[in-house]
Amino acid sequence: MTDAHRTLLVIDDDASVRQSIVAYLENSGFSVHLETDSRSGLAWFNQHRPDLVIADLNMPEFDGLDLLRQIKAVDPYAAVVVASAIGSARDVVEALRQGATDYFIKPVLNPDFLVHAISRALNNEDLKRENERYRVDLERVNRELNDYVRLLERDQKAARQVQRNLLPATPAHWHGVTLEHLIVPSLYLSGDFVDYGSVQKRYVACYLTDVSGHGASSAFVTIWLKQLVRRLFRESRDRGDEATFLVDPSLLVRMINQELLQSQFGCHLTCFVGIIDLQERALYYILAGHLPRPVLIEEGRAVYLEGVGKPVGIFPDIDWKVYRRPLADQFSLVVFSDGILDVLPAGDLLGREAYLLALVQSSDGTLDDISNRLRLSEFESAPDDIAILTLTQRGRL
Asked: Which pTM was predicted?
């Protein structure tokens, strides 16, 4: 707002000063209202709220300092310029301490200085009021943001519970094989997921998958994947060719790859798919871009399973090799997602893999012992999602 649209209230009991000040301010473009005493001036201020008040510090009834305090009590941001006679420096200092915006000494020898002081005071008060509006708006935005964050946290916690409910029971026991899992998400939701089950009383099937990205988008894909795998197995049972998936799990992975590309989720996944044939005492498995490779413990010796394979959801036409590994009567298979590499001692990839292999070999192959050695309970959240899946058999039934 320009000065020409500003209303000024002048409160002064000195007629000569009133006339000279009012005349000059009106000539300078201000709209000026005049009151001759503090009480009437305060009443007019309360009713009209002018843009600026010019008040004499020495007036009868109650002085300018009392008037200043009462004006500030009504409007802390009111612009008040006080006028004082020569020799009243103490009153001026107190007025400034009480919140006066500026002051001038009477008689006014150079009216231009007064206009300049008024313009400066108006600008300062405009800035204060604008800052206050910004503060109020910022507090409002912060409250809304906090409310939104709390709502988001509630939604995330609810979604996390849904995802947990979709995970298989841990531990689970089938035909002498114990399966356990642990997932440590980097956020409320995890892009890592595991599932397992028993098929035809001969096979124990499992997978561990790591969806690219973090949070809700990745977690959604894991939920979608679980339903997809169950649907594919159900359809294969209905067709009577369920054994095809068990003999050649690459068929399942190819179907997942096709569905993921068609879905256009904009992400890919790495996974380990393993099927234990209890009659053959063999593990059939696929590695689809999965690191680190699963660790097999037999006869007190831990080794990484061999194998390579491309991730799922990137290439339209691709096959995955199915690897076969004979199994001893007693074994432990430990599968990690790549988030585990972020919590190992610093070093290159080969060094971290060597460290992880030695740690697993020194363990008893159970999930509890391995997670304790990795100190995973110390992490409230991990740098990346961490998933561990263990399959253990202590002897043939």
From this structure: 0.64
